[in-house]
Design brief:
The chain is an alpha/beta fold. It is about 25% helix and about 25% strand. The protein has a single domain, classed as Metallo-beta-lactamase, Chain A (4-Layer Sandwich). The strands form two sheets. Strands 4-5-1-2-3-6-7-8 form an eight-stranded mixed beta sheet. Strands 9-10-11-12-13 form a five-stranded mixed beta sheet, with helices on one face. The structure holds zinc ion.
Length: about 290
Amino acid sequence: MKRLALGAAAATAVIFLIAPATIAQNKPKPPQSVRLYVFDCGLLTMSAPATFGFTKEEIGEKQPFAVPCYLVVHPKGTLMWDVGVIPDSQVNGTAQGISTVTKTLKSQLAEVGYSAADIKYLALSHLHSDHTANANDFAASTWLVHQNEHDAMFAPPPAGGRGGGGPMASATYSKLKDSKTIILTDKDYDVFGDGTVVIQYAPGHTPGHQVLFLKLKQSGPILIAGDLYHLPQEINMHRFPTFEFNKEQSAVSRAKVEAFVKQTGARLWIEHDLATFNLLKTAPAFYE
Ligand SMILES: [Zn+2]
């Protein structure tokens, strides 16, 4: 009996010795340089060329849109950028309206070693429902948002509606109201202070729409454009969706971003452009 008890005590001691190390190993080590993971957060099947300023002769009747989510891992912390169209709890692999999501964001984060609790910052390109689905999961992160976008998300709509705008799903982001929040200005926001991960104000599509600039060591500069455009044809044909919050502002933001892209040689990634998305390395592969 005594020997058994001692054995059990020894085993317990061993477990206590091993456990903290095991937990520590599960936390991914910060990389030496910035990494970008692209997740497949679904597909939207749009069939509304006029909504994006085109005829069906110009771009066809159906527009399949990619829905990516992005994880930036910097030596000093992590940033989640855009969080999908269907909340993980409702993902079932089948079409739900125009949206089809086959993989949860949670499972894709886990595959590369992260959970929502590991995410230091959350930023959404904008408030539309195809970018906010899992926002509540990141309520413990620090939220990076412009005041006017924050207001549009939480202020009660004025009588007569908001005056345009795309679909919103306020229940998917309601917990952000109590999140630690950093209100951004119209100046670039350098997330980690070394110029490698920078949020740029690009309003128009929504009041406080924003885009993300990354300067990666091997892959070079990349500009993730949110919904500044939905289709590449919008760039040269100067078309705008019918549901812009402020089309004139969008035109100014586009000109600014296009000049920046030209000056830096950055690759411009239109998030919903399926042709772009299909060429990307998706997680667990990454850009660095
Ligand atoms: Zn969108």
